[in-house]
Design brief:
alpha+beta, single chain, ten-stranded mixed β-sheet, Immunoglobulin-like
């Protein structure tokens, strides 16, 4: 009898873990907007993926303020020259995370960056996230 209980409890626990790993939603931590010039800046954050499938960020839209454009970029250094080029997506591995920030993947912001508060819509493979960020001027 005790063995049946143990097997039943383990089966329920395993099912719960599998449901969590398949249904867990990605989330964002440490988000900040850094304005480097009146019309250029970047959004940096960590995309956390608690699921067992790869999750890719495919687009970022600036909802507030209007008139600001966002693009996914990667910074590369070739022959001592730093360049930034657009990318189609940035992926977080299963049960992992990816940092978008300085000297790597980041979200380039272009337009009038004079607000103290920004709202973004992050489009992922199968869901969207909305984040609000306060500005840090440098």
């Amino acid at each position: 009898m005790a063995m049946r209980w143990l097997v039943a409890v383990l089966a329920i626990a395993a099912t719960a873990v599998l449901i969590y790993l398949f249904a867990a939603f990605p989330y964002v931590t440490d988000a900040e907007v850094i304005v480097t010039a009146p019309d250029v800046g970047m959004l940096s954050f960590t995309l956390v993926n608690p699921s067992i499938r790869t999750v890719c960020l495919t687009e970022v839209e600036v909802m507030e303020p209007t008139g600001v454009k966002a693009e996914l970029h990667v910074t590369e250094i070739r022959d001592g020259v730093v360049t930034m080029k657009p990318v189609d997506k940035v992926c977080a591995p299963p049960l992992g995370r990816v940092r978008l920030g300085h000297m790597g993947y980041h979200v380039m912001l272009m337009g009038p960056l004079n607000s103290s508060r920004y709202a973004f819509l992050l489009r992922l493979d199968s869901t969207t996230l909305t984040i609000t960020v306060e500005t840090q001027r440098r």
